[in-house]
Amino acid sequence: MSVWESIVGQERTVDLLQHIVASQGSGRDTMTQSWLFCGPPGSGRSNLAKAFAAALISPDHGMGEQVTKETGEVLAGTHPDVTYLATDKVTIGIKEVRELIMTSEQMPSTAPWRVMVIEDVDRMLERTTNVLLKEIEEPAPHTVWILCAPSAQDVLPTIRSRTRVINLAVPTNKAVAAFLMESLQIDQHQAARAARLAQGHIGVAKLYATDQQVVKDRDDLVTGLLLMRKASDAVLLAVKLANQARDQAARDAEAQVEREEANFRRINGLGPKDAVPRQILGAYHQISSKDELRRRTVRRSRDVLDRGLTTLASVYRDVCVLQNGADAQVGLVNMENRAAITELSVRLSKQGAVERIRHIAVARKRIEGNGSQLLDLEALMCNLLV
Known about the structure:
- Residues 243-270 form a coiled coil.
- InterPro entries: AAA+_ATPase, DNA_Rep/Repair_Clamp_Loader, P-loop_NTPase.
- The chain has 386 residues and is α/β, with parallel strands linked by helices.
- The chain is built from 17 helices and 5 strands.
- Helix 7 (173-184) packs across helix 8.
- The N and C termini lie far apart (52 Å).
């Protein structure tokens, strides 16, 4: 199993990084130490950052057929010389970044490099980014920084200009389907449908391939949109989408708490039913505190809604494809609804289809900006009426 095996549809980028890692040798002066990996959600930028970190740490530079002990630890998130900063908050705080900088100044304990990975660096406010700026511009001699963002434009120019930017491609449906078949051991039809519905988002494709309820919810949303004729239909569909997002977010947040509690017990040598010692009880309770659970639920609900908005946009994308006679070249996302989408493409003008995609983009920004999710969804659905 290669360290790069989980990277889907990024062959040129993987070849480049493999060459860089293999050719660094002992000449660190030729090694770029500040990187910015950019790619749309689901393109695998975080997985690529982790694979690159593993290759830098591993004695075989990640070129072997088998995962080394060091590589396995990096991929599992347990290597002492690789630090990850990821957040389920709306923004990354100054305190977290300062702690990361302190760690970056320490010499690596066993590896040739200390690697610092920041996911979603676009969630940093400008004052937080300024704290990081000097470290990115002049890293410690033994430190490599890997930042991840949706695009270079989402990062402040001061950071962007001081990093080497790696742009990821959107994986093809064929590449995603092949990955699903190999990693999940599912049949070709199931993998192909999950990849098509996910539109290049690897994480969503895995979700569609393994959770039939999520696929059913998506199918119901598309059907509801295509049957929507009056304002009452729009409001009811908005309420349904908001409720689904809330319920799924609550389930996901609770499942995450259970995993973290189990991990906490494992790290501290405790069994599933062992009493937690008093000196670490506070840290254990913090994992499942009401504030923590609420925060995770809010963040997760936005992710679920974002997926729903992508589903809505895919319908109008298909309308545009049919209106421009491009279905033979690029195909439809919602093939199962071809007849209803064809009918919609007749009722809706080309300008109207594009305008509705714009309405969805506006709603996405409003929801990310802490607006009222239900009100934003109701307004959107009414704007989508034909």
